[in-house]
Amino acid sequence: MRWVLVAVMVAATVLSDLLQSHEMKRAGEQSVEPRGLMRLLRIIAQRRYLILAIACLAVSFFSFMALVQTEPLSFAVPASAASFVLETLLAKLVLGERISGRRAAGALIVLCGVILVGG
Amino acid sequence: MTAEPAKPAATLRVGVVLFLFIATKAVGNLLLAWGMKHLPQTMSANPIQYLRAMLDPFVAAGVLALILAVLMRLALLSLADLSYVLPVTAVGYVIAAFLGKTFLQETVSSQRWLGTFLIFAGAALVGSTAHSTTEAKAK
Predict the structure, then answer these.
(1) Does the complex come out with an ipTM higher than 0.85?
(2) Per-residue pLDDT tens for B29-77?
(3) How far is B109 from chain A (nearest CA, A)?
(4) Rounded Cα–Cα distance for residues B4 and A81 (Å)
(5) B37 vs A107: CB contact, 8 Å cut-off?
(6) The domain containing residue A49 runs over which residues?
(7) What are phi and psi of A100, to 5 degrees?
């Protein structure tokens, strides 16, 4: 059950990040002063992928809540780092980003760490 | 990225915001875990249950601290590059294991410590390369 929750949490986090990155690149640069924030809220309301991204964030946080209820905190927080691995993989496959050897090595080290933490 | 040397006041401000972020995140995680573990019912897939769980004072305080942490992280990102923020905040994984052991009486095996430190190292390595796309665009 613990790995199901980790998988849901990580998948939801990464999906949310990908959707946000994809939509915000299309929306152009935004500012965070009050008027900029109002514009940002309007953009969110108009773009269904951003609404989906926020729903994914909620799913991710709820999974984290369920995870810390039944599993140790010393497992739940480090295990959430698995998102680095999936994010690196999808950044290359979906967003077509170039992944440096250093980043690939980092993601692999994180993967080994997550396996050890769960073992 | 910038040519001018870092001013001591700016460095101090980054340090303070960094500390506040790491602290609010750690305390938020701890309060959330404490509150969730003491709830009478186990969570299912029903989202209403999670919203109701947030009425618990510890869970609510945890959520509030985690919201503060998000704001601190935004403030931090306005002061420092992501390639600095990601590696230094990766220490949060180690802190979470430490808090679990100290306050929640969790048993952290040497294998779990090793895994946690590997995650810290790996996340720091991934993070220190994060700015590669923006750097190319920077003037």
Answers:
(1) no
(2) 999 999 999 999 888 888 899 999 999 999 999 999 999 998 888 888 8
(3) 9
(4) 35
(5) no
(6) 2-118
(7) -75, 160
* Helix (H) / strand (E) containing B107: none
Q: Nearest CA to A58 among A21, A18, A8, A24?
A: A8
- Which residues of B lie closer than 8 Å to A, measured between beta carbons? 29-30, 32-33, 36-37, 39, 42-43, 47, 50, 53, 59, 74, 92-93, 96-97, 99-101, 104, 106-108, 111-112, 114-129, 132-133
Q: Count structural domains, chain A.
A: 1
| Token reading at A15 | 């999906």
CB B26 within 8 A of CB B92: yes
Q: For residue B43, give how far its alpha carbon lies from the nearest alpha carbon of chain A (Å).
A: 6
What is the C-alpha separation between B71 and B7, in angstroms, rounded? 24
In chain B, where the domains are located: 1-79, 81-139
Interchain pair B122, A65: CB under 8 A: no
How far, in Å, CA of A94 to CA of A109, rounded?
A: 22
φ/ψ of residue A71, rounded to 5:
-115, 160
| Cα angle value B38/B39/B40 (rounded, 5°) | 115
**Could you give phi then psi for residue B74, rounded to 5 degrees?**
-65, -45
Sign of CA dihedral A41, A46, A50, A52: positive
- CA–CA separation, A50 and B124 (whole Å): 28
**pLDDT tens, position by position, A71-117:** 999 999 999 999 989 988 888 888 788 888 888 999 999 999 999 99
